[in-house]
Request: fold
Amino acid sequence: MGDPVCSGVSRRAVLGGAGALAVVVTATGCGAGQAAKTDTSPFSVPVGDVPVGGGKVFAERGTVVTQPNAGEFHAFSAKCTHAGCTVKGIVKGQILCPCHGSSFNAADGAVISGPAEKPLAARTVTVAGAELQIS
Reply:
């Protein structure tokens, strides 16, 4: 091994750079599906925005609202209980997390497949005419 001073890069600089990179990777979390700061205060959406047999993710509100059967609405935290990534969509009765593949039941938020081990936190949804009140 050559003299680190003569090569222009010391072992300390290399190790320090690797440590800084590890901090950046850790701070950036899950990438594209990563949870952003969200507003979880009460809000309302039109009933028609939530399809029967599916649902809609309101990422900016940290909430996913589902309608597994006509007129049956549920709301959950959109934050995956595995690593905190924001869930992306609802397919065939499952709420899907894009980061590590966890899926949750659209009717009750229960884990269908991991690595998540805990269900999505429930939120309250109330039908008020043509609006859904989420709190």
